[in-house]
User: What shape does this take?
Amino acid sequence: MKTQQELRDIASNFDLKGKILSVNPLGNGLINDTFKIETDGAEAYVLQRINNSIFRDVPLLQHNIEAVTRHIRGKLSAAGETDIDRKVLHFIPRKGSDETWWTNENEWWRVSAFIAGARTYETVDPEYSYYAGKAFGRFEAMLADIPDTLGETIPDFHNMELRARQLREAMDADKAGRMAGPEVQAMVKNILQYEHEMCKAERMHREGKLPKRVCHCDTKVNNMLFDSDGNVLCVIDLDTVMPSFVFSDFGDFLRTAANFVAEDDPHTEKVGFNMEIFRSFSKGYIDSARGFLTPAERENLPYAACLFPYMQCVRFFADYLNGDTYFRVKYPAHNWDRTRNQWALFQSALAHEKEMAEWIASL
Ligand code: GN1
Ligand code: MG
Assistant: This one.
């Protein structure tokens, strides 16, 4: 834990307006550490320590983010939008530099302008899901013609074949000695049964049937800012913006928004895939993405809705077996509860796959 003084010292490396009054924790991400900086002027800021053991190339990551935010700002202004500073993130350079990060070679930090009067939600109703679908579809649509080539900030981030391989490695190494239990063994068996089916996207890509596009890749519900009237302001948490399949953004939103409970709720009997959220989100998404989606992308959206609970189940499970080195945990069985939860969600999504396909075809 950093002291107030340490945080203020880090923040003072950036070109901020006003005098820093306080630096306090903000939000509940599982990877980076986030703080809000209050100043004596009109501006407030968000200070973040970028988790460098996960994001190994921070300059590449910040170049991606700057390219994306620059491109979106241009699109918004060309469309005659107002209040653009609240609709796209803005990163603050380090003092005396153009670079938007500060490092002591051990820790990496950055600062963005705080967007006032914005809220995040952990759950959404059907109406907000529709807006969220439109916003993520629009995000991808705006980035369809970005001139910059973006790097992969986490190579093969949503590659299911890699995630399955990492699970096998975790099983073989059994670093935390958690493999023996009968429930863990049953989970292994369940997961492996669907491995081939769930790796379909990678096969389609190799066969030239599925493109990579610039996607957000972390479309959790709480990565979207809404204003006080419920309008979407902007998409945040841009560290994972990179080339991927559109399935990433579609599937990961539903993974969080269409679950009746939070992703770590241990009461798996309450977990389920909410079709009402699915219908409104997919309608919004297709309303803005219709112009660029290929038939293969569109037809496979129900697969994407199943893939992401499955992939997240595999990732949480591998981390549980590795001894919780990746996702922040609050108690020893936290990743195990997340694994069971995502497995239950995957089962429920699978049961609705046909119904999803009919709905998508009707849009
Ligand atoms: C992580 O940082 P956060 O909480 O927004 C993770 C996502 C997972 C998510 C699960 C870089 O996102 O991929 O879906 O946790 N981000 C990274 O809650 O691994
Ligand atoms: Mg987040």
